[in-house]
Amino acid sequence: MKKDATGTTNSSPPPLRGRIRRARKSTVPSPLEGEGGRRPGGGNAKSAQCTDRLTRARRLRRDQTETERKLWSALRRAQIEGVQIRRQHPIGNFVVDFFCPAATLIIELDGSPHDNETVHKRDAARTRWLEDRGYKVIRFWNEDARTNFAGVVETIRLAVRERLTPLPNPPPQEPALGPALRAGPGWGRGLGAKHQLRDND
Q: Which CATH code for domain 65-164?
């Protein structure tokens, strides 16, 4: 121990020399991880899911089946009604085979694995989810696309046209004529006769 100028004994420890070691980061996972909160790496669960879907979509584009590749050759570059169609496009938690944004139309090609009760129920639930959000889903078997390719392309073209065509204006409503007049047989003839008598008066 050292004495200061006043003779008082100083009991403070000597200063540390060299580098001060920093406390290690905790390896305990964040309680928010997996619940949509921030991840330790700075991202969050939602962005990670989005990245996973994009990665899956890219893999599906790379690993297209021969039938998908053939159909894509007829749909790409705005060959159908001049609108853009995308392949292996993520929507929600799904990746659809083909998607036309302008017509909100989804085209699915189903192979033999879909000819299964369990997969069929899953496809039906997926279709309901998409249609509840305003999308139109049309499905084709791979075999149909192979044996009737022109028919499949024409069906897609007509579906796109139908979705792009605005609905006509509703027809003008009839004037309210009252339940008694409507209920009688030949109410139109009676109305004409009434006008006839009025014109002759």
A: 3.40.960.10
